[in-house]
Amino acid sequence: MALRAFFVALLLCGIAGSPLKAACPGGASTSFTVTGDVQKRAVFDLRRLQGLPAAQANITYFAAGSVTSQAFTGALLWDLLNNSPVGGIVTDPNVKNDILHKIVIVTGSDCYQTVFGAGEVDPFFGGAQIMVAYAADGQPLGTDGFARIAAPSDKAGGRFVSNIVNIDVEDGGSRAGGRPPWSR
Ligand SMILES: Nc1nc2c(c(=O)[nH]1)N[C@H]1C(S)=C(S)[C@@H](COP(=O)(O)O)O[C@H]1N2
Ligand SMILES: [Mo]
Fold first, then answer.
1. Which residues of 72-99 are buried (b: 16+ CB within 10 A; e: fewer)?
2. What does residue 69 show for φ and ψ, rounded to 5 degrees?
3. Which of the residues 30, 47, 91, 170 has an alpha carbon 20 to 30 A from that of 141?
4. Is 95 helix (H, G, I), strand (E, B) or coil?
């Protein structure tokens, strides 16, 4: 009987305390890490973010069915990845336009995620002014955390990841690791 209660408790713990849930508590972020295929991993807080060249954009977008207009201030995602301390995305010079293989995965404290293509934000290619914003209408972002994505040409707010806790650069190319997908 006691053994049975133990296994029931174990099962309940397994469901309630799943690792994913524990890793995604949500709430306002105060710093994020930059990881993956970058010259140097880094931790950003508000002060560090404000140290990058400032960008501004007035953005009108749909959020949960209603239109919102906000003046965002922040750093361009491209600038953040290419200035000190991160110092650039690591690419293989032997792979033609390897930058176009890279994806930038932005994760919020609730594990909400959006992926951007490096080619989309690279000024040589898409040049999208995707921003890591730290203010809206001149005010800190409050419950959206210290930093949030703002995507000027997006129609809806889905990619505006709030409460950023990580920005990760990975090789999203089908030849990641030198193996095309059809050979895996
Ligand atoms: N971390 C996180 N960011 C998020 C979301 C989320 O669930 N978690 N929802 C997205 C969606 S679907 C929209 S429409 C906007 C809503 O932004 P708002 O709450 O400022 O209107 O935030 C986006 N950013
Ligand atoms: Mo949304």
1. bbbbbbbbbbbeeebeebebeeeeeebb
2. -125, 125
3. 170
4. coil
Dump pLDDT digits (tens) for 23-64. Answer: 899 999 999 999 999 999 999 999 999 999 999 999 999 999
Q: By C-alpha distance, which of 145, 141, 120, 130 is closest to 70?
A: 141
Residue nearest to ligand 1 atom 12, measured at CA: 158
Q: Which two tokens stand for residue 59?
A: 């953005």
Q: Please name which of 128, 52, 117 lies closest in space to residue 83, comparing C-alpha atoms.
A: 52
CA proximity to 22, closest of 145, 111, 148, 115: 111
DSSP strand pairing (55-63 vs 148-150): unpaired
125 Cβ inside 6 Å of ligand 1: no
Q: Is the pTM of this model over 0.85?
A: yes
For residue 118, report the phi and psi dihedrals to the nearest 5 degrees.
-60, -35
Sign of CA dihedral 16, 20, 21, 23: positive
Give yes or no for residue 112 CB within 6 A of ligand 1: yes
Could you tell me if the CB of 161 is within 6 A of ligand 1?
yes
